[in-house]
Backbone:
């Protein structure tokens, strides 16, 4: 059965984390001469002369309200990509352990594994990009340390069925990481609602998509306080800058803008999903719970991709991904951008 202490790498269990000046003293001091900061101030237009809160308490307090979880269940990373890397490093001894992925899926899982000299076990999704009973059986039987389930999945756009994810959570002995980068666009409850039921569950979300803050680099992991404690133990001490923490707080106060953008993108997505199949060159548009559509083009998706590039329109060519032959991934843009894309595709000969 799942046993976190047994899953965590022995050297990480044993190590003493870096103790920063801001860990050892918190609060309002009159004279702060403990961290070799510059008490005179900052170059540039704003003050950033003090090290930021290593545990981002203010941001987590706001997020906790929004997500209806306790702050002790939240980890913040420099993008969810940092959380992906730390989860691999937390559980996998280089040159020895494996992670499990379900292609076609997000490319960073493989990159994090390769970087850390961790082997990959690939269990491809079915042709409709779901799990099957056989697939679940294979995952549950595996002794990989961690499985990434991306739902809604990138690049396919679909949610994985909740009952299938639940079976993996009940049977798999390692960490089950549900990557919900696109959850804000999805017509399904987040797995953060089920954290109390599954000690092996980690949910990833991000400010990069629906919040419109890809340039900020801020990702979230939700899990048990024990798992979060280990992520905090191994993260770089000041992984979230003061600028990022301040900006995130401001964004969290701007829920109406978040909501309005999300609604507009959903409307545009559904319009695009209706209009694209009318084109002769579009063979299929896959169902999407995200802010993009995967579409299969005929007779030659790469020729369409190159043609769009020539018109200054960049989409993502996914033709070489397993199960994705002939497909391009189209991000939903502004109404004008979407119209430019459609007009260009209509004019394709
Ligand atoms: C975009 C995306 C992310 C977000 O990564 P960040 O590092 O937070 O920008 C994570 N997972 C998936 C599947 C994505 O598509």
Residues:
């Amino acid at each position: 059965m799942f046993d976190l202490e047994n899953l965590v790498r022995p050297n990480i269990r044993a190590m003493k984390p870096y103790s920063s000046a801001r860990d050892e003293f918190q609060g309002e001091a009159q004279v702060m001469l403990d961290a070799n900061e510059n008490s005179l101030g900052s170059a540039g237009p704003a003050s950033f002369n003090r090290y930021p809160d290593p545990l981002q308490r203010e941001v987590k307090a706001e997020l906790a309200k929004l997500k209806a979880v306790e702050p002790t269940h939240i980890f913040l990373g420099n993008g969810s990509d940092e959380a992906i890397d730390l989860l691999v490093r937390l559980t996998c001894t280089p040159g020895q352990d494996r992670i499990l992925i379900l292609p076609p899926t997000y490319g960073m899982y493989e990159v994090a594994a390769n970087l850390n000299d961790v082997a990959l076990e690939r269990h491809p999704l079915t042709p409709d990009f779901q799990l099957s009973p056989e697939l679940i059986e294979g995952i549950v039987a595996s002794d990989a340390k961690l499985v990434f389930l991306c739902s809604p999945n990138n690049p396919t756009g679909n949610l994985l069925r909740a009952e299938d994810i639940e079976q993996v959570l009940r049977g798999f002995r390692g960490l089950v990481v549900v990557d919900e980068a696109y959850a804000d666009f999805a017509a399904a409850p987040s797995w953060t609602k089920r954290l109390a039921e599954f000690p092996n569950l980690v949910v990833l979300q991000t400010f990069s998509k629906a919040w419109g803050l890809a340039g900020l680099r801020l990702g979230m992991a939700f899990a048990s306080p024990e798992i979060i404690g280990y992520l905090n133990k191994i993260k770089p001490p000041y992984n979230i800058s003061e600028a990022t923490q301040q900006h995130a707080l401001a964004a969290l106060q701007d829920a109406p803008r978040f909501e309005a953008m999300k609604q507009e993108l959903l409307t545009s997505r559904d319009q695009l999903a209706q209009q694209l199949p009318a084109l002769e060159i579009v063979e299929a548009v896959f169902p999407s719970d995200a802010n993009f559509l995967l579409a299969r083009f005929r007779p030659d998706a790469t020729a369409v991709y190159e043609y769009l590039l020539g018109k200054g329109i960049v989409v993502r060519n996914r033709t070489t991904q397993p199960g994705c032959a002939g497909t391009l991934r189209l991000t939903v843009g502004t109404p004008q951008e979407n119209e430019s894309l459609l007009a260009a595709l209509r004019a394709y000969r």
User: Anything to note?
Assistant: The chain is about 35% helix and 15% strand.
